[in-house]
Fold each of these.
Amino acid sequence: MQPLKRNLLSMALASAALMLANGAYAQAAPAQETADNADELDTVRVVGIRRSIEASTQTKRESTSIVEAVSSEDIGKLPDTSIADSLARLPGLTAQRFGGRPQEINIRGFAGDFSTTTLNGREQVSLGNNRGVEFDQYPSELVNQVLVYKTSDAQLVGQGLSGTVDLRTVRPLAFGKQAFAVNVRGDMNKVGDEKENGYRASVSYIDQFADNTIGLALGYAHLNNPGQSKQFGDAWGYDGNGIFGGGKLYDLENDNERDGLMGVLEYKPSDEYHMVLDVFYSKFDKEENKRGMEFGAAFGGTTLPGSTPANSNFTGINPVIRNDFNAAYDELFAIGWRHQLELGEHWTAVADISNSRAKREERILETYAGVGPGLPRDTLNARYNSDGHYDFDFGYDYGDPNILRLGDAGGWGQDGYIKDFEVRDNLTSLRFDLERRFDEGWFSSVEFGANLTDRTKSRASNEAFLDITACLAGVSPTCPDGVSAPLPTGISRSAAFNAYGVPSIYGYDALRAYETLYTRRTNVNSDISNKNWEVNEQVTTAYVQANIDTTIGSVGVKGNIGFQAVAVDQSSEGARTYPGNGLGADISGGAAYTDFLPSLNLSFELPWEQVVRFGASRQMARPRMDDLRANGNVSYDLNYRRPDGTIAPTWKLDSGNPELEPWRANALDLAYEKYFGDNKGYVGVAYFYKNLRSYIYNQTSLFDIRDVTEFPPSQYPSNAPTDPIGYAFKPENGEGGTIKGWEFNISLPLDILWEPLMGFGIQANYSDTKSDIQPQGPGFPNEPLPGLSKYVSNITAYYERFGFSTRVSQRHRSQFVGEVQGFGGDRTRRTFEGETVTDVQLGYTFQSGPLKDISLLLQVNNLENEPFRSSFNGNDLQPREYFEYGRTYLFGVNYRF
């Protein structure tokens, strides 16, 4: 597949280059006056793609740390449709797709939980079960710049182990002029012959008042983005002969609606005082209707003679027809109030107070149907498709409502199931800083300060079995067999499926069916109780940092040296369950500890615009929230195999660990950068090395059942183990390891090489990362680090001149371990295959006349319809999941004045 993808990219690049080169020649040829105007445009007003690249390059060069940057092309306009898209193109960064959208960012081979996200320098909460921020919650139109810190410095509070992503909104006084922009885009997602249409729109306003002492910036962005996909999986596995065991097939329809609001108020009445008030709000409603089936093959029927992994035949198949509804309703709010006061010629004081809070209400609803009573079980042929999935031929037409009945077709003891979750996250921070500047000497200034953070995150779960109301009383006119009911009428959806060889599967509105046809039967067990927890963290960070600005001979030296002292007091509340009590008893726990994090960053300015950077630091990342939960479940196994090989009745305790300490690492970074043409381009190479002093993974230890005081011996079951010493299984700090890698990157406007190539440019990067960390502990050496792709590459070719712009981008990552929502609503790990995603963008901005400053934009995302795939143990003949998201086409109009 890769040669084809490279050829497609090459053809797209060549076609775009020829088309726009011809257009440029046609406009440049008539007269020297046109060329002079173009030169004036290029030198006086750099806009669009080139503006974004040059601003990002300048930020990278001027930083004293090793950073990557993405800057907006114009007010309210980042270069990609989402922040995650833009970040995924930076050296050493990758994105994991959810629902076809890049959402989680992996930095240098680490999953999102190892990084920290800030908004205007303030740590942000997250909407998922852990710490990783979902970047599609932040509308790209409201973000002015994104900085990714790959090295640490002492004044960077809340830093991550893999990196820190700082989202920045515009500063109206620094912007310096009035601006108003309106962006409107229509989009169409196409999977096969099926289409879904949506749109996005935004408006941005920046102004200054009262003789430039007051600045105001406002932005609003709305997204209405229906989507769709086809899914093969979650495959159940394969038998000893490699025969398909069973799985699921789904058609998914998504409705995504997001509203975002950004506001910035600046007040600077004098050179001595400066105040900034930031407000950010985002509401994102995501609804998904899933229609499909779940069925066993080798694990649910009889495998017929002559079957092979490539072509298998079965009889006795009994599919469960699934119509599900999943939804997540998210709200995110952040506010920050910063005051800066100049205390004389050499001192500056800063006080900042902020709050970030989020709430997610999530619903996972399942309803079941199957072949009605009296009909024999089905037959099945399964054929392997080299695209990475199986195709199927069933004997029945599962789009025919006359053969289907609502009910417990799988014999699972329920006619449906519902899970309602709620996640809340609240973080309040108070920060004080002082800076002392020096007029001469090695150090330009010394900064010191403190930051106090109080964060509480909780998760609640409410789950129930669903029973068909008409069948609760047994036989009735609507439930003639006492166990099943006719399919709902008046709320049917399309039966056309047209994927994986299956022409049709009957569909209906699962949410409306739940509201009218089902009764809840509360489910109380230990698994559900363990999803109810709260974690509180109080973190005090004190820091001192000396900023270096000097010369050694003819070499300029900039940088910083300092340390942080981070004191943490953490606690958790939950429930511990035991046999006979699924609700359990309240339990709590916690720990306190202090970390010292030294850091050093040096930047050497060499002749001919060369820069060498060095960084050394101690880094840390707080443990996952679901690992910190106090919850536990006491059980016993009558035939437990102990570590010494003996089999005996044994008590067991599965739990979280509120006493966990962070991941900690010693990190070294070295980078070389060569800049061209007044920061218009650069080439660079970087090496990084992290030695994790410990890693967190599940470990086994002894525990005494007599210490579980809320579960006295009088409540023990009659067959309970007599030996009070059992085994506890919980996350612990254990053996670490190293991760290291090379990053190569280039950003080059091609007119630097040859003047006739004015307007053409290229950006590319490549990363090679290695790790010997064993994420599940010693003895599990074959599982890679979550989020790590050994090879990552990105290439973007662009042209921008005379109002024309075009960009073709392709990003690739090799195989990696990611997280998805698994059974029960918890996160589970999967090994996903490598992927290559190509996007194309064409645009034109009117340069004069009545349409001046109006821009037209055409984009195609996922040009080659790259699927999202996983397999068992990397075996292509044993696919596990195959998500086909299709292409998305966007056409937009932007206006700025």
Note: The mean pLDDT is 89.
Amino acid sequence: MARPDTDFEELLDVAKLKADIEAIATIHAGKPADMRAALLPLLRTVNTDGRNKARELLEATKGGGILCAERISWLQDQLIVAIHDLVDAHVYPQAAGATAIAAVGGYGRATLAPGSDIDLLFLLPSSSTDAMRKSVEFLLYVLWDLGFKVGHATRTVEECIRLSREDMTIRTAILETRFICGKQSLAEELDHRFDREIVHNSGPDFIAAKLAERDMRHQKAGDTRYLVEPNVKEGKGGLRDIQTLFWIAKYHYGVRDAAALVKRGVLSRAELRLFEKAEDFLWAVRCHMHFLTGKAEERLSFDIQREVAAAIGYNARPGLSAVERFMKHYFLVTKDVGDLTRILCAALEEEQAKPAPGLTGVISRFRYRTRKIPGSSEFVEDRGRIALTDPDVFRRDPVSLIRFFHVADLAGLEYHPDALKQVNRGLRLIDNDLRENEEANRLFLSILTSPRTPGMTLRRMNEAGVLGRFIPEFGKIVALMQFSMYHHYTVDEHLIRAVDALSDIDKGKFGDEHPLINKLMPTIEDRTALYVAVLLHDIAKGRQEDHSIAGARVARKLCPRFGLNPKQTELVVWLIDQHLLMSMTAQTRDLNDRKTITDFAERVQSMERLKALLILTVCDIRAVGPGVWNGWKGQLLRTLYYETELLLSGGFSESSRKERAKASEEALVEALENGWTAKDRKLYGRMHYQPYLLSVPLDDQIRHAEFIRDTDKAGKALATMVRTDSFRAITEITVLAPDHPRLLSIIAGACAAAGSNIADAQIFTTNDGRALDTILVSREFTDDADELRRAGTIGRMIEDVLSGKKRLPEVIASRAKSKKRNKTFSVHPSVTISNALSNKFTVIEVECLDRVGLLAEITAVLSDLSLDIKSAHITTFGEKVIDTFYVTDIVGMKITNENRQASITARLKPVMNDQDDELRSRMPSGIIAPEPAPSEGSTPDLGPGNAPRLKV
């Protein structure tokens, strides 16, 4: 049984606990049920006090995570021993001394997290009695009554041995068996037989199975240790990986602790310290997580990262918050675990373990001869992996540290773990001389621009520590996370994934998703500069200054070192400085406003820059995380590209705007042929203003005309129409209703109540005083039938709210109640009002923390202020939203008065801070009375002050 430390031992007087239990047994002698009931309060108090003390000592930094886990394990041992002794002496004395209780799994290593299951093995003799089994049941019921989650098995030694042969999970559990109490000879028999009958000569089988199990677990977790909400127990580089290392070492080398691996020559003393520090840190994180949440929480989510960081003692530093510093340390520790895995695998190779038939992976390749690699005298091929000809390769020529990865890329080889161990131990050889070495930089550039798998090679260089040493600026962002819901990966992993995306584009893999860039990539004049820009675009994250500006400065220093000429350097510097320009313009600006296009074109200036920036932007968005890229963003970027291309090539003419609108109107009238009377063609073909005619495709104009005519024939005052678009990953909900200052606000509120995310809004007014608004919501289902049903539900919600059948404040409140309010993140709210971004409209940009109903409330405020919303552009970056509104006053003029601008800001701020309860209570129930429906051709009475919006 494990022994406690002095600080913890003082808490629990074991002798007194036994005396108290004995007193309870005496009082309730012969009454097991009463005895059990009386026992529970005492044991609960002991357990609660003990765990509170363990938490107190952990928070007071009296020992780290492992010591905390050992304290809880020791406490658990005492409770089990106390219950067992009671059962043997007073409940089932006829079974006394006949069974053994052993801890298995993590508990078997004498470590236990606060919320973890208790894994127990009850060992019975070969001829067991009913009393023995009942004694086990009694003990289990007491543990369950105390609230413990107990994983248990009741077996004989023979059953354990038989099942170990058949099931690798059971074999692993028994490998960790630790005797707690009872008949010790049974536990010893199991231990001896397990070593002799199971472990002997089966090392390769076990190792291969554990490594395959680890790989499958990693795949389920995203196959990266750099997820910003990692699983501390099961994730890559987490505690389970450390446990796997120890299982393998214990099984193959027969060691009882990691320190014995130093004597065996498997680990150096420095590597042992790394092992111990990594394990202690991960245990500390896990224990804090369990204490904070009160359960076995293994996912280090945003909700608890701040609290864990504070509990461990991290403080903010310039450019990095406390939680970001903590998470960077976390990811560096998980990287250390990966290094230790490679070192152990290399040692196993040297041991020449016997390969298991039919298995692939590390073990199956142990006994194969090496082969020469053409053109290389330093490296050889060992069963599909690059290996060193001798351990001194890197010391003789440090450039070989870069050449190693270059040759592996050229030859398409995996990496021998022993070679990676030598790489790791040779990192100190990467100094300024190597960084400035022309050959080393040429090799690196060749790796980066490789037509094969540059992302994979860069990732291996990063894992080995080479990339961060060779490019110190990159080393600063290794394992750096950004505390936001938008970014799924650490900065270094994001950059490497961006290179992955560029490589896939280069190979033409995204033809269906990105038809434009698939066509543009072969025309790129400078492929090398583009790859460098993609790798470096976020290299200055984590600094106090703007990362685009700082990144451009870093690039200006690095590009000549890499061997880029002045023209290439200037392109890379410009791309990094402006790498957010195209994304933000496309998502937050009105692309139908000519000023948007002219301003963007003035900053881009050339087609070469435009093409490179488009490709960089796509790579950047795709590398943020799963689900961040969608077809709607692609459509916006394509529209911006095509409009800018026209302007840069001289094809954009303001003078033709009126003529183009007239031609569009005539085309619509001509297209309304089958089933249309001459009167209807004239009425419905000429009811739109210039913005509509210039921005809406003819097919959609025809569809809208039919929709409006059908609505009028049905005598409806309002109607909705839905359409899915799988390519753009959006669903269109078109609303026809009497125009009203609050119309967009009510529609947005209805969409929020239906649980839909608005991506954009196209707002138009017909010349008979009605609004034709198309709301674009993010697609949720891949199947069109499912998405149409969802869209129909949203459409009905909009109609019910507009008609007054449902009250907007109530439906939004109901939705907000069902959706957990995000209190983890804070976004400083800001309002920007500009008259320079459009020739005709004032642009109001709102940035704040997202929540249910926000858009509805913001647009309600703008309506209260008598502002006419021409278009709205809704962009969400995780927890942050940036909403942009193009507005005029009630007579179609810009908002130029400074006092009025200040008033707009003052009215918006309470809504952005979620404080405007008065506004919420005043939100209208609808704009159309449910009955009676207006007759065909009539204009509904909107009431005093509700005149139609004036469109210019």
Note: The two ends are 84 Å apart (CA to CA).
Amino acid sequence: MATDRENADEAADKAPVQDPVTAEVDTDRHLILVDGSGYIFRAFHALPPMTNPAGVPVNAVFGFTQMLANFLSKHAGSHIAVVFDASRSTFRNQLYPEYKAQRPEAPPELAPQFGLIREATEAFGVARVELDGYEADDMIATYATAFAKEGGQVTIVSSDKDMMQLVDDRIRMLDPIKQKPIHAAEVMEKFGVMPEKVVEVQALAGDSTDNIPGVPGIGIKTAAQLIEQYGDVETLLSRTAEIKQPKRRQALEENAEKARISRKLVELMRDAPLPCPMDDLRTRAPETGKLAAFLKTHGFRSVQHRLRLDATGEVPLSRPAGPAPAPAALSLPEQGAAFGPYETITTLDALEAFAAAAREAGVMALDTETSSLDALNASLVGISMAVAPGRAAYLPLRHEGTDMLSPAPEQLGFEEAARVLRPLLADPSVLKVLHNAKYDLEVLGREANGGFVVSPVDDTMMISYSMDAGRHGHGMDELSRRHLNHQPITYDEVTGTGRGRKPFAQVALDMATAYAAEDADVTLRLWQALRPKLREEKALVLYEQVERQMIAVLRDMEVAGVRVDGPALKQTGAEFTERMAALEKEIHEIAGRPFAVGSPKQLGDILFGEMGLQGGKKGKSGAYSTDAATLEELAASTGHPLPRKVLDWRQLSKLNSTYVEGLQAQIASDGRVHTDFSMAVTSTGRLSSTEPNLQNIPIRTEEGVRIRRAFVAEQGHVLLAADYSQIELRLLAHVAQVPSLLEAFATGQDIHARTASDIYRIPLDQVDREARRRAKTINFGIIYGMSAFGLAGRLGIGPAEARGIIDAYFAQYPGIRDAMERFKEDARSNGYVQTPFGRKLWIPEIASKNQGLRGNAERAAINAPFQGGAAEVIKRAMVRLPDALREAKLSARMLLQVHDELLFEVPEGEVEETTPVVRQVMENVATLSVPLAVEIGTGHSWAEAH
């Protein structure tokens, strides 16, 4: 017995074709001429970069193939051809050398696609027309005119306004974006004249896009009025004395020759040679084997599916399935589309229909609704999807009743829905667009949530971050307000707040749909708005080669986690507690009485009130400030032991609460902690980590070592730590081009000893520990814009002596001062600085009227290129290492990234093979004026690996 869906399909198959290509044609002779060149560039700029299995760019090929498949599955014409430009130079360039001279060469990633698009045309069995010395427009005009003279009807598939001069009762156009026919009325609306007068209007108005001069000061509207009055350009130019407006008359008289040349440039040739006989344009079925091979070679599975080549081996050219919109990926953003109402998907038919729409569009925005912000423990409650602005839906999967008494709402069974979702989410020809994709990929990848593979992926958060790090936040709501002028529904609005907040699984489906589907809709619109800007902002390479690739890398690292020895950590906590108690006792003895060491107010009263130490400053609350900077300064300037003891106590207290108690609470059932790497938080491009934060474990203190001892390898494995050596100083040498520093890094000298030798003018072999310590302090301090006052505090010397050291430093290395000043000027002029690799890092407060904020911004402008450059170097390495290890057939897993260090878990038997692979990749990810160097160590704990 046939299902309702099968009956519907059969009815659709029998229904008459009502598509905009053929609906108005009343003859058996119908020629469709497709402006192939126009489609190539539209597809290239509308679709994200994609490559075929051989690594060749194919986004324009894919878009063109979608378009051609759409036409061949619908039209009933007798003839069809795709027309291409054969070369840049035509007879028009000989007539006017400046014609189209300003147009740039094709982007390098588009150039290899021209030939593949021609192959696609032939694979579909469609005639391909092109001729050296003539533009595609001329060939279209010639074929259209010839076919119409034979009594046929012609449809020109193009939005090129130049072809509107061809429109008549037998020739019409079809706008491929709007799928709207263009007749004489539409031409009149566009140019103010009928089609036969279009060339006259264009000759006067000119066209800056094609470098057609026209007459300066005359636009389309004025030109149309003049042509309506005088009939044509020549008549107008012969009667300029009749024109009453002096400036207009002068412009026409002085530019008469330009108007005549412009007319020759815009008029299409209708009698060019015909490279293909008309009979060769007849519609014919393709060789299915050849077409299937082409689609398979380039990974175009969605087109195979649509043409049923993957199922039946036949192309249903004679079985149109009814009207279908142009692929959404090739459409302009529908800015006017309303945000909702949206669809709630509760049946299998509805889900399959939405999946088909996603395959038709080639792009789908995706978002998950879950039970928790912890991706590795969250339960999937539902999925929202969008295939076009305003066309979004929510698929509930695990909703419960709105209270204990109400039943669960109607929804698809999880496994039933998964059977449709699994192939769709993995389909390489459907781009999945997400916001903060790493979270959703981890949720969907959990076996408990279906174990879905999602690929390929674009991330609107990382697209924004690649262009605007430091400029603003990159949350979806903020980007929606900024770029779409739309405030999305908030989570609090649908779940409530505080004690009254309900789990999302208990939100009524109408409210859940309004909230969740809107997120997918907003994500898709953000993608349409932001994706094209990557190229304009020169951030495309950064996004494609680094940030986009990092999503999967970090997902795998978070899922892997790192093992923590719970008993050892507990013992460390006991020792910290004991030491804190001892320190507290010493502090009380120095203060002369007991007090709450953790109380800033009580500490301030003792230091500045009872002890009378100088330098105390009260805040708005009336209490003395006792932050770390104040205590550091106090310890350096007075030598009093109390501030230093309190700093030591605070450090222990923080380490104990954050890394002992905190880590113990975060050890998962697998014995490992799974930190969350934040990808779009810092202003410099660096990663940060939370739950737990592993970025702030002290590196060289005994306490930090004790905590790192608790991070251990699985049995039979070791931890391998690979740390970039002095990467920011190497970037400084590269940017500033300091000869002695370049030499030092090239020859492997101790960079701090060399700096001491240079600024103190002493032989390298006579540099002592103190001189080296001072040089090291200024080497690192200079990258952070350290002042003489700051250096004095770090070295325990007077400000005048510190100023002398800084002056000597800049006198020896003038290139460094020049680079610093250049960074500050760049920030003031542009609002941003750039890393050595071109990433923009925005400095919002650089123009602040507040001197303190402006000073901080200037220091940030100095430091950001080095921190940002170091971040990009290690990210490049992280992107390449997983593949390099797999290619070497090694089992090492990358677990953590902390500043300039990567931590791996390696089988004991593979350490010798893994070490050179890691070193080779990390030291060769960037080409600088100095070599990159990596220090590698191994051990059963993180501490031992250093």
Note: Residues 148 and 613 are 99 Å apart (CA to CA).
